Amino acid sequence: MPLDGESFRGPDPRPEKRKKDTDVMKKMHKKGLRCEITGKQPASLHHVYPRGQGGDDVPENLVALEGTGTTGLHGRVTENDHCALSLLGDHILLNRPDVIFYVQDKLGEEAGRDWLRRKLFISL
Prior knowledge:
Elements: H1 5-9, H2 15-28, E1 43-47, E2 62-66, H3 72-78, H4 82-95, H5 97-107, H6 109-120
Antiparallel strand pairs: 1-2
Helix pairs in contact: 3-4, 4-5, 5-6
């Protein structure tokens, strides 16, 4: 059995939701997107609660960060750089309560608090 993405993982269990989520991403990811923290561009959208763990492509789970998933601040966050994650956590705490509510709703109140504390050093 080949290990291409479709055979290995099977069909997408949520094809309609993925299409809707992709449309949201396209609307948010417009040319000239600036980093929410540094104000620099180009920037890309970072999933605060990872898609691989069940995070959705919704504005409450997306933060514009400088660089790509492998470069700039976005790359540092993706690679779990302690300073970059702390900077992102401070930004979310001060400017993006919608992200906090999203994670707490996704995981449940206490589990969400624990995840935010461990991952982004946010104490609520």
